[in-house]
Amino acid sequence: MRRLYPYWGGGDRVRANGLENTKIAYQNNTDNQIYTSNTDGTEPKRLTNQGWNSTGNWSPDTKELLFYSDRDGNYEIYKINPESNIITRLTNNPSSDVEPRFSPDGRRIVFASDRDGNEEIYIMNADGTNQTNFTNNPAYDGYPDWKPTGEEILFESDRNGTFNNLFGICLANFPHF
Ligand SMILES: [Ca+2]
Ligand SMILES: [Ca+2]
Question: How many whole angstroms from 53 Cα to the centroid of ligand 1?
Answer without folding.
Answer: 13
